[in-house]
């Protein structure tokens, strides 16, 4: 589906009143889940006594509680009550080979026979891994590992500031670049500002500029404004698909124009490819869009979800700002970590990409997503709903209540956005009760092992949910 069509159809959903699944039906759904998961329920209570909120995992379903999983394989997960689920969360997108893929797992076990993850020295797997990344992403002339995408984003903006001598960082509203103090601003929901940033001193945001999604005019105005001041703009950081991996999609030429503006005003361009790297293409979003960033952020998909997964790569002259060599005559971006670049992480990078090359993983996952999107749109049409689905390769979005489309700059819209978010969450709970796991209730990630039969189960679960939503 093309950008203009997506934009038009989101506007249709945004501009009408919506109705969600009635509360009395949701009570029955929660009771159904509790009856199916008698062993998970007490474990969930124990977890609540040990972990704030009862789970370490931000995106796992918590309604009525997070179930305990005991086994995973391929597209399937099984809980401690032996309930089987078809997984479309796929470790928040980190898993594209399929859970616990035997050929991948076996290669890593072989590595661990010789090298432990606590190695604090160079190993040959680092060379193999980085060279394989460079094969597909020529922009990555140098590369440094970290423990997570959040750490990699923190390091990238620090590197940009050291290299340019400038201080301002520009991002776009709704985009998530990890939970560090300076970037934990205007995340998930455009114009939300510090709404999700309790505990962070306001001064941390003084050099973070967040612009409305896709607003190139505002970008140029800010680049021009700050180029005339001492601090200047060190970098512009983007999710190349748009906020939330394309939930707020960018126009086709957006990244190209951002690149041109960065060049014009002397700012670095940072691509956050935590999700898009190795899902859109082995060459990432930068190959997909034909735009070369100065720095690239990698995260969970770099290692197929194996820990610890994060990295920054880019131009050699920029990346050399992180060298640990002591040189009092030059500035240095401090960035370290005891287990960064450990054998497990770098071997997972190498073997993950190698297997993806050999199996055609990206296209297989994309074919599964194409099939799912077609079946979803057919179902929405059958139910005479304005809902619709679209995908970027194996990243699937399905718009039902579109909470992110609500402009919360109008205070009267905040309760509407909250209600729509609840409607989306309820949709995920109903689908879970039918044995299908999604990312919240509006996104799915396919892996190379998702089959048409899996997608049929997804459609059956969605059909159950749609029948509960009153016509409006």
Structural summary, described in words:
There is one protein chain. Helix content is 40%, strand content 14%. It has 472 residues and is α/β, with parallel strands linked by helices. The protein has a seven-stranded mixed beta sheet, with helices on both faces. Strands 1-2-3-14 form a four-stranded mixed beta sheet. Strands 12-13-15 form a three-stranded antiparallel beta sheet. The longest helix has 22 residues, at 361-382. The protein is globular, with a radius of gyration of 22 Å.
Mean pLDDT: 95
Main beta sheet strand tally, sense and closure: 7 strands, mixed
Q: What is the ordering of alpha helices and beta strands?
A: HHHEEEHHEHEEHEHEHEHEEHHHEEHEEH
Q: What share of residues are in beta strands?
A: 5-15%
Question: Any guess at the CATH architecture of the largest domain?
Answer: 3-Layer(aba) Sandwich
Structural class: alpha/beta
Low-confidence stretches: none
At the first level of CATH, what is the class of the largest domain? Alpha Beta
Classified in CATH, the superfamily of the largest domain is Type I PLP-dependent aspartate aminotransferase-like (Major domain)
Shape: globular
Annotated CATH topology of the largest domain:
Aspartate Aminotransferase, domain 2
Rg, rounded, reads 22 Å
Helix tally equals 15
- Output the strand order for the largest sheet: 4-11-10-9-7-5-6
Spatial separation of the terminal alpha carbons: 25 Å
**Counted beta strands:** 15
